[in-house]
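Regression check, magnesium ion case 692:
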Amino acid sequence: MLAWSDPVTYIHGLTAQQRRVLKQLEVGTVGDLLSILPRRYDDYSNLVKIAYLPIGEPVTLKVKIKQLKKMPSFRRRFVMVRGLLEDETGAISATWFNQPWMLEQLKPGDEIYISGAARRHPRYGLGFVSPLWEPANAETLAAGNIAPVYPLVGQVTQKTLRKIMKAAVEDLSEVTDPMPSEILEKEKLPTLIEALRLVHRPETNEAAELGRHRFVFDEVLYYQLALRLARNLADRGGAPTIKFDETFAKSFVSQLPFELTPDQKRGAWAAFQDMEQGRPMRRLLQGDVGSGKTVVAAFCAAMVYRSGLSTAFMAPTDILAKQHALTLQRFFKKHNIPILLITSSTRYISEGGEETKLTVQEAKDRLAVGRIVAVGTHALLEREQCPSDLALAIVDEQHRFGVAQREALTVLERPDKMVPHLLSMTATPIPRSLTLTLLGDLDVSIIRTKPAGRLPITTRILVGDVGRNLAYQAIKEAISRHEQAFIVCPLIDPSDKLGSKSVEEEIVRLRSGPLKGVKLLALHGKMSAADKDQAMNDFKDKKADVLIATTVVEVGVDIPNATVMLIESAERFGLAQLHQLRGRIGRSDKPCTCYLTATDEDADISRLRVLERTNDGFVVAEEDLKIRGSGNLLGFEQSGKGIFKYARPDDIAIMSQARDTASQILKDDPLLQAHISLRERAEQIRETAHGE
Ligand code: ADP
Ligand code: MG
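Current build output:
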């Protein structure tokens, strides 16, 4: 009998090899193991005879081995085993790769089950390639069943993992279910132990789905409870009241280098109204790249300064933080609002038109004094780095930070237990269907229309070297007009995580040919912060014509003089990411072009066409969601970094069920004092958020 919290080594009858597999999976307890849910199922419950074999559908056959032998393979790396298999209705062939041990385990005359989908091969005719096989005289894992397909890591095979999971789930007897039984009954959901049996050993596809439903429901419910519990706690703490000063607002607006668009005004006004309440603002400013979110944030920070308090303005990268500091200096000059920049490489204060470098201690001392706008990366999130009188936290490009950091912010307490207002900004247009689930605790302002006078970016998909030469031509023409260009390279190989190799090799290639004589500059993740800065500044100062970069330029960088962008291997990027990238150009009144090239000639570039058709980020996002279905958009990632492990973007119905349940629970019990087990789960989410 196994309990949820038992170590995995307690699972009955583990072989040495299975123990090694468990090590690779890095799971400690039986619960950890069983929390790895199948990604999908293969339906092998369909037992058929060879004569009636459907093509391309997953089936199981019971066959006798007539012949089994090792074949010479063209590519020497592979060991290929071919079998001739028969039943009373006919014969069929099967091929396996890299399973030489089959020859030791099986011999002609043996009966086996094979599971898989038959395909017609141009050379070998109808047959199976690498079907699952199991001896017919033992209990089967796949044959005749709905077989779970687990996410695999390292050397772990599907077969071994299925065996371990089966042993664990069948032996499991004790699981404490954190969900109160009234909720399960009301929502018609299985208990946790039932759900585990359903997902790991389903008898039908519907049963598997019901089990998965429970996991998605739990996950979304806990997430919602965590967000709203934090909000309820924050509301209790209260927030500093920022009085709206109309005269000051008018004077601020009148000295800006441009007129605010109606959407920008609406966004700022909504924030001012929020901040006048004693309740902490939680507002998200959504607007496509280049829509002008920064000035709205600057306006809010200015109002906070006016009322005698501090703002922390946080960007995802050092480069962006520095850029924001410069932008704010421009907006704040007339009102002489002091800005303190804190990054890993520099610290300075800008006051009265002068910049003064500071030591770590001096910066800290200045923060302690208060009434300042502090700009920096998320290092600012750390308590000591926050101004003592912090009234407003601005988080730029929050999709980079993830909701985790946002969550950390909402509980960031000042010594007087008050909670700062929060304005977060994102260029990721979140499809409406998901907004409530992901941002249930936020009020949203949208900047839809871009500043007037912007020309749309022309996007062109190019094919092959002929196409690429067109782009080089366009780059050279732009340079002759004293404009600049970006070339974005993808990472060449997995070992090149920071892209230095891609960028360096591309520069060498371009220098020796296509862009001979052009001044090129590199920017990639392996460079030190100081070198990155230097490169950005040099590019801004027009010391180079073309910046060759990895996706570090994706977020926020503002170089209005750059009018051409070439994105290499565009097929490797998501649509939303390409849209972000091309947003680096089109920031002035000059016509701009973004070229997308596919490196892999066979790549499917048709999905990229939407970028040629529209410049609207919301349209691109909806399209991305449609194409990828359950892609890694926003919080939905397989990698474990996302918010949700189980929920997929199309689980809208379950999400709203969980959301409604969260509302009902919190209505009568806002701090979850009567729901201890749920509160514990919600707090676990918050703790992992803090740990990041
Ligand atoms: P994003 O929303 O992508 O952060 P930014 O705030 O960086 O966009 O603004 C993009 C550019 O548009 C900046 O150069 C900014 O000065 C300019 N801008 C912002 N608002 C306006 C406006 N109302 N009229 C003209 N230009 C504007
Ligand atoms: Mg921005």
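Comparison notes: Residues 258-261, 264, 287, 289-295, 427, 451, 558, 560, 587 surround adenosine-5'-diphosphate (ligand 1) (CB under 6 Å). Residues 240-447 form a domain with the Rossmann fold fold (CATH 3.40.50.300). No diff flagged against the previous build.
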